[in-house]
Structure formats: C-alpha cells, structure tokens
Amino acid sequence: MEAYIISLIATSLIASLVGILTPKGDGGIAKHLRLLTALFLICVLISPVKEVIRRIAEFADGNWEYIWKNESMEESYREELNESLQGASKDYFLQMLLQTLEQEFALESGTVRCRVEWNEGESDLRPTHVTVVLSGTSIWKDPHAIEAYVTELLDCACAVAIE
Question: How many C-beta neighbours within 10 Å does residue 103 have?
C-alpha cells in the first residue's frame, strides 16, 4: 500500500511538471499532453484493481489466504501455545508425582512438596532433578527409600530434604 501511494504521488508530480512545461497555444500540443497525462494517471489509479480481481477469484475458488498474514505474529502465538502447554504439563506432572508419593509411602496430604528441574533447551521435556521436601509427620518416613523410588521412577537425580 505504501508503494502504491508513493507511485501515485510521483505520477502526479510528473504529470503536473509536464503540464507546467508544455507550451500553451491555440493549436498547440497542450491538449494532447493533458489527455495523455490524464490517461497515465488513470492507469496508475486503477493498477490495484488487477490484484483485487485476482483475490476475489481466489476467494470464489475457496483457496483464499489472508491479505494481512503476519508470520511473526503467527509464530508468537505458536510459542505462547507451546509455553502454556508445557506449563500445564509440568503442573500435571508435579501433581501426579505428589499423589504417587503420598500413596506409595502413606504420606499425609500436604506434608510433602516437590521441586522439579527440567531440560528446557531440548525438544522433549524431561525432568533432570527432583527435590522432595518432607514436613509434618512425613519427616519420620525413610528418605533413602523415597529417593530411590523417585530415581527409579523418573530416571533422574533426586534429593530428599526434611523441613
């Protein structure tokens, strides 16, 4: 659109310059040049019509693409979606880990917390380190058994802390 406006302004300036430089007279060339410059301006004004007709034909055929398709905006939406899905996956993973630990070791609900570190740079999301924090009545459970269970279950390093 910007190129169209610039070409329209340039064409108008050229037409006015030609009109100024054309000699005036009774039987002169001024009338013919005015006709030619007017036709030239009309051609420049209607040049986008060809593109509009092509887009209407595409729309009628059913394979119409958006005129204002912005790749960077589409990519940012895709990144936001992936981040929200990964965030939801991480939360779900953490909840399931807590439930599994509570059931496996008969821990009281709310007395165990977990902190998980992830491999952020790679395409497949995997935990790299898990820290299990025991509090309340859960401090009397065997931390070595919990550590071994989590390490075997997730195939990553685990540390158990007592609060």
Answer: 9
Contact 151, 157 (CB under 8 A): yes
Cα–Cα dist 4/105, whole Å: 73
The distance from CA 57 to its chain's CA centroid, rounded to whole angstroms, is 30
Q: If you compute the radius of gyration of the chain from its CA atoms, what whole number of angstroms results? A: 36
Q: How many beta carbons lie within 10 A of that of residue 37, not counting itself?
A: 19
Count the neighbouring beta carbons within 10 Å of the beta carbon of residue 132: 24
Judge if pTM exceeds 0.85. no
- Give me the residue label for tokens 């981040």: 83
Tens digits of residue pLDDT in 72-115: 777 788 888 888 888 888 889 999 999 999 999 999 998 999 99
**8 A C-beta contact, residue 125 and residue 99:** no
User: How far is the first Cα of the chain from the last one, in angstroms, to the nearest whole number?
Assistant: 65
